[in-house]
Amino acid sequence: MKLYLPKLLLKLLLKLLLALLLALLLAGCAGHAQAAPLAPRPEMRGLWVVRTSILSPQAIAKVVSAAKLHHFNALFVQVRGRGDAFYQSSLEPRAEELRAAPADFDPLAEAVRQGHAAGLQVHAWLNTCYVWGAGHRPAALAHVVNQHPEWLARDSKGHFQLASGAGCEGAFLSPANLDARQHIHDVFLDVATRYDIDGIHFDYVRYAGAAYDYSAAALARFREQMQGSARLIDVKIGEARLATDRLSYPHMFPQEWQAFRRQQVTDMVAAISHDVKAVKPWVVVSAAVFADSKDAYTTRGQDWKTWLKNGYLDAVVPMAYGASTPIVARQIRDAVAAAHASGRYAYAGLGSWHIPVGSTVTKIEAARALGAEGSVLFSYGGMTQDGRTTRYLQALTQKCYVGAAAVPAMPWLAPHPAETLHGG
Fold it and tell me: In this structure, are strands 171-172 and 130-132 parallel, antiparallel, or unpaired?
């Protein structure tokens, strides 16, 4: 028996069939011409590279290759560890760790050459006040600890320590000693002037702790300051007490003493930042700081919020090294608020060397959500077991750094001359 369909129903079936064919055709075309995935937003993806990871060109090549492969975009390379130089310097002795390297090997120059060739930024990381941390004196007679022990910060008894111990990592230069401060300034300017670095990075830009600095230079300068500002009767009392109490002025004027201590560090940062910008206005000035801003301010003399407010820093990197993500997030939030209020950037400094990769990922995501302009991880050597494995970096890339990202531009900085020359 033949089946006859009404004409109206037949027309409807034909229309549905055509619509289905058209949909399948469009889907097939879309499958062959999908839009390119969006590139990750710009963010700092930095690696702190400790000086022991740059002892040969081959070691530097390993660092650069790992950073590039795993989508990092900046290296913070430690070139002044303990009052020494991992570069060619006329101001400080060559680092003892480079004894086996050829005399003409320049780790900083090599890191800049290889890093830039791979498209990475290279920031010169200098330990600022911290100049020694071993139980023996430096081997080089020209080392600042040997040449100028009077420049070292002292405790209330007038002592300093060489080795790292409770409450003090070792010997620190006193930012209140104007000769010591000038030396630090000259070291920073030497590096910034002679090397094509993308940034200069302060670390240990502080006192060892609240017990320091009662050096002769600090006490003399504070005494002079108070003699010019305190009441005459108080000055006379302070002078009378000096015979039995070398700390009479700090004891009489404790608030002014704390402000004085902080101001010495701030003045040092201000002068270095100003003079670096005068020479190379495109160089980024950043600082690794204590993430607990209250502790940094009251104990370390590290008033990094003022450094941001006054434009001495382009970026602050709070060392939020704890394992607890809520605590780290609170510290990052504080830094982001201070940086953004000053029109500057905050990068989360994370202690990846002692936490699982999943914890690092969670903290990076928290920093992103809080508005940080990126993260800097401590450290290449810690995460790779001194270059023996990249498993940590591989996992990080798969979970967090999928695709390469540019470093966020800083519109307040002058362009690098090479960018201007090439129309960049």
Answer: antiparallel
Please determine, for residue 6, whether its predicted confidence score (pLDDT) is greater than 80: no
Tally: H helices and E strands in the chain: 16, 11
Among all chains, which residue has been given the structure tokens 């040969």? 56
Does a cis peptide bond (omega within 30 degrees of 0) precede residue 386? Answer: no
Nearest to 216 by CA among 153, 169, 259: 153
- Residue 28: pLDDT band by 50, 70, 90 thresholds? very low
Taking the C-alpha atoms of residue 303 and residue 306, their distance in angstroms, rounded to an integer, is: 6
Query: Domain 40-212+265-409 class?
Result: alpha beta
Question: How far are the Cα atoms of 121, 134, 148, 200, 222 from residue 127, in angstroms, in the given order?
Answer: 19, 15, 18, 11, 26
Q: Which residues sit opposite 168 in a β-bridge?
A: 165
User: Are 80 and 92 contacting, i.e. CB atoms less than 8 angstroms apart?
Assistant: yes
Whether the full predicted model's pTM is greater than 0.85, yes or no, is: yes
Domain chopping of the chain, boundaries: 40-212+265-409
User: Per residue in 283-338, pLDDT tens?
Assistant: 999 999 999 999 999 999 999 999 999 999 999 999 999 999 999 999 999 999 99
Q: In angstroms, how far is the first alpha carbon of the chain from the final one?
A: 79
Tell me if 81 sits within 8 A of 95, measured CB to CB. yes
Is residue 200 within 8 A of residue 287, CB to CB? The reply is no
Q: Does residue 177 contact residue 151 with C-beta atoms inside 8 Å?
A: yes
Residues of the chain above pLDDT 70, percent: 90
Q: At what angle do helices 216-227 and 178-194 cross, to 10 degrees?
A: 110
Q: Interhelix angle for 254-279 vs 216-227, to 10°?
A: 110
Q: What is the largest CA-CA distance in the chain?
A: 128
Beta pairing class for 44-49 and 374-378: parallel
Average pLDDT of the chain is 92
Please give the Cα distance from 117 to 130 (Å, whole number): 32
**Residues forming beta bridges with residue 348, ordered by sequence position:** 375
Cα–Cα distance between 346 and 364 in angstroms, integer? 13
Over range 373-385, report the average pLDDT. Answer: 97
Are the C-beta atoms of residues 322 and 352 closer than 8 Å to each other?
no
CA 413 to chain centre: 18
- How much is the pLDDT for 26? 38
Structure tokens belonging to residue 381 = 């050597």
